[in-house]
Amino acid sequence: MRFDPDKLRSEFPILSTHPGGRPLHYLDNAATAQLPRAVLDAVSRHETESRANVARGVHILAERASMAYEDARGAMARYLNAASPDEIAFTQGTTAAINIAAQGLGAGFKPGDEVVLSELEHHSNIVPWQLLRDRTGIVLRVLPVTDDGRIDLSALDRVLTKRCKLVALAHASNVTGAVTDVARVVEAARAVGARVLLDGAQAVPHGPIDVQALGIDLYALSGHKMFAPNGIGVLWGRQEVLAQMPPVFGGGGMIRHVTFDATTYADPPKRFEPGTPPIAQAVGLGAAARWIEALDRESVVAHELRLTGRMLNGLAGIAGTRIIGPTGLQARRGVVSFALEGVHPHDLCQWVNDRFGVALRGGHHCAEPLMRRFGLDGTSRASLAPYNTDADIDALLEGVADARRHLA
Amino acid sequence: MSEELYEDAIVALARAAHGAGKPAGEGNSATIDNPLCGDRVTVEVTLADGRIKALSHNVKGCLLCKASASMLGLHAPGASRDAIAANAAALDAMLKTGDAPAYGSWPELALFLPVSRHKSRFDCVRLPLQAAAKALGETP
């Protein structure tokens, strides 16, 4: 069936609202994507018909809740092509997933061991490793970024040493939209015996991921960027990797036996899910994964690329704009950051929102090292989802040109 | 609406940049960052006879922040510490309540009234006055 963005748009109730009295042109999807009716209904139905705690009660609602929660785990295992649902640990989001990985893997690191990051990482894939460094004495090494906003993989040979235990990189940049050449990273990491973790927050909304084909060890993602509720995410890890990681948080649900002398822990993924988990959010995440899987992938990718090209060309036609990231369509997602000479990103974002109904994101995007790399304090960022249309891009371009006329 | 938030008078105030300039290091200075957006304001003040003799500011921020700093640069010379504090309090109250600024405040304060509907922009306007208060607090 032919992909129809307008029809898809009708599945998102919020997109037909008029915040501020204007039609909504939502281009802040890299921060949070909107919820389709399928996800809203799944969450509502769960809370209405199956709300209870999981893995504890034997009454009917508890059984339903447990089944729904594990069903969501299965849906995410399929979405990521994990070898088993047991490789899916639910977390609060990408940040929590990377922190768990850092503390869990880090338990086996020794002073002087190295973790390799890149200059374009989100703070969520920098700070957890700095906390680990400060506690254990590991060394952080950083891959530079090219002038077109990609991780400079030509530096892999120089930066990766025999002391490297882990390479932790963004699968796709939340600022430049550049997609990382994972095969090249994995090859270099394996050559020195290192593991690979990917921050998948900006990659997962654009279609199912095959973690086995990627050949990586750990993958972190957030639900709210892939059309699911807030407060839910996933840490995927190969079973043998998760099995080697000690728990990071303690509590109910993650144990095997507890005495005052010693406690033994559950196997993964329960080991990493202490306390009552975000059950309805997980149900929503499972529904979102199924919703994305049902889309015509090829058409959606083509649609988003076409809109990305329209955006890049349009911005290039506005005097004073500077694209931060790839200006072509190869190996990039529909995340476009730009600076407009003489206009602060927050003023631009406010202007286009209040006058044109365009929702953008302005600032450093939790990527201060990358901003410094490009000599900027911040950028404006437009990011796409399948429900975006030409009208959204036209409103953006009109708004940017108007802001330049009035504010530059 | 933006037409109000960025009305000509506020754009002109920002562009006038009263008091803008790198601190000369002759007075006491203070720098305040907004970690959420990366904006930074440095204010330097010198006092004479209990009043501000000179004030300069260096703003790395948005138009609203620059306009606020310009307002400060316009009115601070000759003002007392108390006057700076009173106008900072009037600004906070105006942003919080959405009501017109207190009688006797700097006239330009009213230009920022539309900001009261944009909570995420409060700190853009507050930052210069906070930096001034900090610099004054450090001035003997």
Topology as H/E string of chain B?
HHEEEHHH
How many helices of chain A in DSSP terms? Answer: 14
CATH class assignment of chain B: Alpha Beta
CATH superfamily of the largest domain in chain A: Type I PLP-dependent aspartate aminotransferase-like (Major domain)
CATH fold description of the largest domain in chain A: Aspartate Aminotransferase, domain 2
Largest interface: A-B, 20 and 18 residues
Extract low-pLDDT stretches of chain A.
none
Q: Fraction of residues of chain B in helices? A: 40-55%
C-alpha end-to-end distance of chain A:
46 Å
Mean pLDDT value of chain A: 97
Major sheet: arrangement of strands of chain A: 2-8-7-6-5-3-4
Strand element count of chain B:
3
- Global mean pLDDT of chain B: 91
Number of domains of chain A: 2
Backbone structural class of chain A: alpha/beta
Query: Using only CA atoms, what is the Rg of chain B?
Result: 14 Å
Molecular structure report:
The complex is a heterodimer of chains A (408) and B (140). In chain A, 38% of the residues lie in helices and 16% in strands. Chain A has 14 helices and 15 strands. In chain A, α11 runs parallel beside α14. Chain A is of the alpha/beta class. Chain A folds into 2 domains: 5-31 and 296-407, Aspartate Aminotransferase, domain 1 (Alpha-Beta Complex); 41-293, Type I PLP-dependent aspartate aminotransferase-like (Major domain) (Aspartate Aminotransferase, domain 2). In chain A, the strands form 4 sheets. Chain A has a 7-stranded mixed beta sheet with strand order 2-8-7-6-5-3-4, with helices on both faces. The longest helix of chain A has 21 residues, at 60-80. Chain B has 140 residues and is α+β, with helices and mostly antiparallel strands. Chain B has a single domain (2-137), classed as Sufe protein. Chain: A (Alpha-Beta Complex), CATH 3.90.1010.10. Chain B is 42% helix and 19% strand. A 3-stranded antiparallel beta sheet of chain B has the order 1-2-3. In chain B, β2 (39-48) and β3 (51-60) form a beta hairpin. In chain B, α2 packs across α3, α3 (63-75) runs parallel beside α5 and α4 packs antiparallel against α5. The longest helix of chain B has 17 residues, at 81-97. Chain B is globular and about 40 Å long. The chains are: A alpha/beta (408), B alpha+beta (140). At the A-B interface, α12 of A face α1 of B.
